[in-house]
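Listing S7. Sequence submitted for prediction.
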Amino acid sequence: MACISVELSIAMLFFVAAIILLREYQHRKKINSVKDENDELRNAVYALQKEEKNFRERDFRKLLNDFNKLKDRTDELEVENVKLKKDLGKKK
């Protein structure tokens, strides 16, 4: 009874090999799943960085536009100030 037949030994080896292959398959499937998740996260981070860059560029353009408007208004007020000083000088 202690002696195992050759056929039973071969069958046990095939069974163990099948279990090893199944675990390897599950392991590779899990690795691929993690890779896909990693790719999705990388793409999401890239999209967020691109959106942030676009937002910063729009914000910068708006600030630059506001600055230019203020500069133009300052120039207009400076010209008006010079005219008023000339008029005041003529009236004295």
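Caption to Listing S7: primary sequence and predicted structure tokens for the chain studied. The mean pLDDT is 92. The helical segments are 6-91.
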